[in-house]
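Lecture notes, part 5. Sequence design as translation. It can be helpful to think of inverse folding as translation between two languages: the language of shapes and the language of residues. The source text, in structure tokens, appears below.
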């Protein structure tokens, strides 16, 4: 069977390390496991405003794509932050504070309810958390810091839009803009934190930082667990199309499905921007491989040049295939979701949030891709719409209407 397909707007290749029908491996279990999931769920479900996000069935689109069903987990309303990210960043902040406060007060770790009630504010306020971000992760760390009462400094790189910068500052964080790419901002945040005694909350791991990025990923697993609960009959889909930046979200979803459905886990297709295919390159090579260049893409959350060491432990054998897509494909998919004639009710999805679906739209329309991925009229596909219009100005420019207009169905047919 053909292993790689190269088209002008996308590329698809099979992961040579993929182990189909295997049990959840020990290597993955050291990163994400049932105990960790239990702790994350117990914490996050107590936060104010927690509610499972909706799972939408896009029947018209499923018919158009000639698959049996298509489910879209819509994260645009998560804690009113516009993306799935608070599940990870804010959960890692909460876990860090519980540990630090316990150590500083020489006793037990406080319960999450005590943190939320502000019982340890006098200790929390002396703790500073920091992160590098393309927008959404920093926003979630800043929101968590505000919710749990500690200080927060966020690093952003050159091309992060002003709208995204302001969205972070709105939660009381100090925002520092640095030269270079996302990966340069990650390095800068790490160096400054070391010098200042701050605590870094990265959403990626280079193999040295483990605890915080592991908690970030463990928080994300709740999104996948909700989807499993919401799927009709809790039946496993046959395919997940998952957008990947550093791979934390995709690894978390993969791990949760793998632990739940064991050898019946769905095929997992990773989707990345053409300019930032670090999973495409790394899995093809069989080892983590950095992507050079500006990494510039409208899919800002996915514009990452290096895979996360922790996510690698799961996706190395868990990912079935990798796709890279052009910005044009992502834009087209955002417009399609906003179009009431094809998707009813219309869905507001941001540039990074739509990438998994965008990958599916291309793959399902190409006979070679369908064969390579085993997509057919019996396939049940799940995608995660990981953000709404987190950059409203950019959303308006691409879709031609505001997120509000799309959501309220004001568009006349
Ligand atoms: C909206 C959105 N979706 C998906 C991702 C990808 O997550 P990860 O970097 O964990 O692969 C991001 C990352 O920032 C994001 O902002």
């Amino acid at each position: 069977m053909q292993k790689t397909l190269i088209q002008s707007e996308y590329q698809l290749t099979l992961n040579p390390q993929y182990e189909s029908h295997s049990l959840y491996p020990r290597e993955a279990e050291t990163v994400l496991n049932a105990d960790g999931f239990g702790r994350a769920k117990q914490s996050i479900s107590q936060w104010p405003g927690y509610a499972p996000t909706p799972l939408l069935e896009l029947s018209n689109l499923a018919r158009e794509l000639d698959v049996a069903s298509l489910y879209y987990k819509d994260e645009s309303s998560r804690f009113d932050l516009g993306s799935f990210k608070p599940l990870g960043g804010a959960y890692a902040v909460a876990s860090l504070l519980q540990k630090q406060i316990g150590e500083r007060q020489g006793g037990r770790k406080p319960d999450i309810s005590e943190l939320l009630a502000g019982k340890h504010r006098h200790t929390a306020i002396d703790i500073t958390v920091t992160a590098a971000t393309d927008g959404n992760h920093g926003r979630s760390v800043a929101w968590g810091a505000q919710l749990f009462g500690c200080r927060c400094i966020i690093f952003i790189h050159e091309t992060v839009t002003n709208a995204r910068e302001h969205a972070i500052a709105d939660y009381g964080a100090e925002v520092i803009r640095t030269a270079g790419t996302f990966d340069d901002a990650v390095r800068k945040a790490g160096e400054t934190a070391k010098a200042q005694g701050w605590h870094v909350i990265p959403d990626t791991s280079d193999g040295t930082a483990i605890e915080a990025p592991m908690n970030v990923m463990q928080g994300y697993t709740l999104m996948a667990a909700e989807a499993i609960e919401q799927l009709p009959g809790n039946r496993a889909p046959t395919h997940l199309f998952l957008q990947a930046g550093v791979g934390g979200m995709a690894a978390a979803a993969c791990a949760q499905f793998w632990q739940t459905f064991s050898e019946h886990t769905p095929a997992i297709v990773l989707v990345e921007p053409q300019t930032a295919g670090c999973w495409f390159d790394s899995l093809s090579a069989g080892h983590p491989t950095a992507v050079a260049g500006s990494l510039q893409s409208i899919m800002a959350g996915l514009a990452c040049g290096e895979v996360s060491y922790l996510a690698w432990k799961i996706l190395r054998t868990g990912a079935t295939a990798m796709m890279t897509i052009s910005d044009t494909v992502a834009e087209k998919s955002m417009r399609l979701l906003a179009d009431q004639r094809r998707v009813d009710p219309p869905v507001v999805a941001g540039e990074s949030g739509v990438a998994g679906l965008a990958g599916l739209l291309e793959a399902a329309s190409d006979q070679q891709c369908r064969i390579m991925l085993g997509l057919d009229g019996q396939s049940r596909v799940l995608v995660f719409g990981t953000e709404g219009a987190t950059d409203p100005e950019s959303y308006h420019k691409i879709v031609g209407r505001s997120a509000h207009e799309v959501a309220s169905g004001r568009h006349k047919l």
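The translated text above is only one of many valid answers, since several sequences can fold into similar shapes. The first helix runs from residue 26 to 29.
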